[in-house]
Structure formats: C-alpha cells, structure tokens
Amino acid sequence: MPLIDGLTSLWDRLLGAQPDPPPLLVLLTAAVALVVVSTRLPWRVARNAVTIAHEGGHALVALLTGRKLRGIRLHSDTSGLTLSAGRPSGPGMILTLLAGYVAPSLVGLAGAWLLGGNRITLLLWVAVALLLAMLVMIRNVFGVLSLLVTGGVVLAVSWYASPQVQAAFAWTSVWFLLLGGVRPVVELQRLRGRGRLPESDADQLAWLTPFPALFWVAVFGLVNLLALLVGAALLAGPILTDAGLTG
Prior knowledge:
Strand content: 5-15%
Helix content: over 70%
Number of helices: 11
Radius of gyration: 19 Å
Largest sheet: 2 strands, antiparallel
Strand order of the largest sheet: 1-2
Shape: globular
Number of domains: 1
Number of strands: 2
C-alpha cells in the first residue's frame, strides 16, 4: 500500500545511517563553531540557541522531578526565565536549578553520540521535536519567534538540504553546543565577581545547599568541560578512522 510504503521509507530515512563525513569537514565545522563562540557579534546572535537549551534544561528537569511548569520566557538580550511551581526547596528544586547551565553541553554530548553513529537525520528531527515541545510553554512573543525561526531552519535543512549540507550543519551545531556551553559559565563567574548576578542559579543553589556558589560554578564548568572532551572524541571518529587509529 502507498501509505505503508511511504511510512516505511520515512522510517528508514529517519533511522538510517549516513556515510562518514570527510575529516576536513569535521575540522572545519569545529573551527567555525570556535570562531562563533569566541567572537563577540556572532556569539551575541548564536547565544540564543544556548539560552534555548539552558531554559529547556530547567523545564525538562522541573517536569521530571514532579514540579508544575508555569512557562518559559526568552528575551532579546539572550537571557531567559523558566517558572515552575512546587516546593521552594528540596531535591526537585536543586536539580531544576542545576540543569540550566549544564543542559547545552549535555544536549551537545547527546548530539555527538548520534553523529558518532552517523544518525544525522535523526538528530535534526529530534531537535525539531524538542523545539516544538518547548514552544507550547513559551510565554512571550520573542520566545515564540526565536523557537519558530530556529525550528524552521533545522526543519528546512533536514528536509531540503543535500546530505553534505546536512552533515556540515549538524556537525557545526553540535560543536557549537559543546563549546558554547562552556563560555556562559565563565561569563557567570565574571558577572558574579562584579556583583551583577546576585540571584544566579549558582547563588540560588548556595541558598538551598551547604555549598557556596563558587562550588556550583565549578560543578557547571567541570560537567561542561567533560562533555566537551567526550563529545569531541565522538565527533573526531572520522578523523581517527581516516588515520587508521580505529577499527
């Protein structure tokens, strides 16, 4: 039947593995992501993607720990706010606060794992699905537009772009999340040192636990650096294969 054949084809396309990208592509996409993260204007624009992942992390963990999600706001200055209802203290609140700064890097690590298996289409479609799920909880106009634009770009690439363009887009995006997850932690501590973020996630965690805010900043940084190292090893698979260092 045409419908069954179409669904089978769609399923095969979703779960099928693409060929290994050229090692040069892996290196170039890493370089592009590094330039974006380390350059002021590109980072100012691309940081919205990190904020989406940050607030999405808060929201997901709030739901998983039994809190009631009230809504998410994304702002044009690349800040965001996730509101949830429940106990103002305890493990659920602690985990919800902890999730934000580590979410971009952990999402990047999950993406690196999928790309390590050459599941490019699956990665892009999962990204679209997560953005759509997050969209229903957005409570401001800029946030809606930000998610629609981001999701639209990912969907267009996954549906219309050539396999080479899809690979370049996927690798650049994952490198960006892995690298881009580290910079906000550095910025967080810099702003805290100037007294400009008295209610940051780290400071709220300090109020809820016996550990100081600097400890939680260090936890954010350690998790994100580990995710970067593991993710980089996964993404470097085509380079190692080309060099004959893997089976």
